[in-house]
Structures are given as structure tokens and as C-alpha cells.
UniProtKB/TrEMBL annotation:
Transmembrane segments: none
Name of the protein this chain belongs to: Glycosyl transferases group 1
Species the sequence originates in: Phaeovulum vinaykumarii
InterPro entries: Glyco_trans_1
Domain annotation Glycosyl transferase family: ranges: 49-147
Signal peptide per UniProt: none
Keyword Transferase included in the entry's annotation: yes
Keywords from the named record: Transferase
Length: 176
């Protein structure tokens, strides 16, 4: 949100859509009625006309948002990535992610996404702005990211293929 504050000051055309619950998923809970989003709104000078806060959306709506987005900012502490990182990459969305080991498992900087120091709002803002100003390069990154996810995790040759081989083994037949 600090990067959002910087970008709102730099660009009149900058809008941010946030789809989230203002709740703590991991770590210590905050006091009743408080969330990190609420804290950011109180602490930062944000133009609320260009900050669009929405709760969670049904998956089809969420996918449409990813596909239409200029960038999806994904930060996590060294822990694990969630399904949403793979989903964003598979949707062809440019992901600007934290330079942390779990994110680096899926994102190679400037190849399948952009990696940033999530504690450096200036760097985050700079890379979001770079994405706006370099559409051809971003299109190539988005295409490589989607291809990488499809190659690694597509059901064909993955679970579906293994399930068919297991079923054939149980039935006493062989598959190619």
C-alpha cells in the first residue's frame, strides 16, 4: 500500500483494485475490528477515489480481474506460496512478487514475472510503473509465465495421465 501511495502521487491514471479480506491469515491476530488494510488506510495518504476495495470474489470474477490487470502484486514471507500465485501466472497476469525463496520457485526475474524487495515501496512502485511503460516486454513475460505454468502443472501428462496408468495397472492391462 505504500507503493500505491507513491504511484498515486506520480500518476493521475493509476487505479488500484484490492480483492481481499482484511484479516490475518497467518501470525498474531490483530485487535478486534482492526486489519492491515484498515491500518494502511489510516496511516497513508491514499486517494480513495482511485483505490477500489472489494472483498473476495467468486473464482470466475477473480480470474477476469487477473486477466484484465496490468499487474498482480504477490508478497509472502519465506513460507510457502499459495495457489493464487500459480493461478495468476496461469491466467497470463504479470506478477510482481516478493524476492523470497517460495516465490522464486515459480518466478524468474524478468522472465516469468518481476521480483522485488517487498520492504522497499520505492522499488515496488518503480516496477509497477515500469510495467505500465513497457507493454511489449510485459506481454512477453506474461506469455512465458503462462507457458511455464501450463508446461509444469497441466493435468495432461500429470495427474490425469498417472491416474489412467494406475487404473490400467489395477485392471491388469498396460498403457503406452
Amino acid at each position: 500500500m505504500c507503493a500505491v501511495e507513491l504511484l498515486q502521487k506520480r500518476r493521475d491514471d493509476f487505479h488500484t483494485l484490492v480483492l481481499a479480506q482484511d484479516a490475518v491469515a497467518y501470525g498474531d491476530k490483530l485487535a478486534a475490528g482492526q486489519g492491515w488494510g484498515q491500518r494502511a488506510l489510516q496511516a497513508l495518504d491514499l486517494d480513495r477515489d482511485r483505490l477500489h476495495l472489494h472483498g473476495m470474489k467468486p473464482r470466475p470474477d477473480y480470474l477476469r480481474v487477473l486477466q484484465a490487470s496490468s499487474a498482480h502484486v504477490y508478497f509472502t514471507e519465506p513460507f510457502v506460496t499459495s495457489w493464487s500465485l500459480s493461478e495468476a501466472l496461469a491466467a497470463g497476469c504479470l506478477v510482481i512478487g516478493s524476492l523470497t525463496p517460495p516465490v522464486e520457485e515459480l518466478i524468474t526475474d524478468m522472465q516469468t514475472g518481476i521480483l522485488v524487495d517487498m520492504d522497499d515501496p520505492e522499488e515496488v512502485a518503480d516496477m509497477i510503473e515500469w510495467a505500465f511503460d513497457h507493454p511489449a516486454e510485459v506481454a512477453a513475460i506474461r506469455a512465458r509465465a503462462r507457458a511455464m505454468i501450463c508446461d509444469r502443472y497441466a493435468a495432461e501428462g500429470g495427474f490425469a495421465d498417472k491416474a489412467a496408468r494406475l487404473a490400467a495397472l489395477i485392471a491388469g492391462t498396460r498403457t503406452g
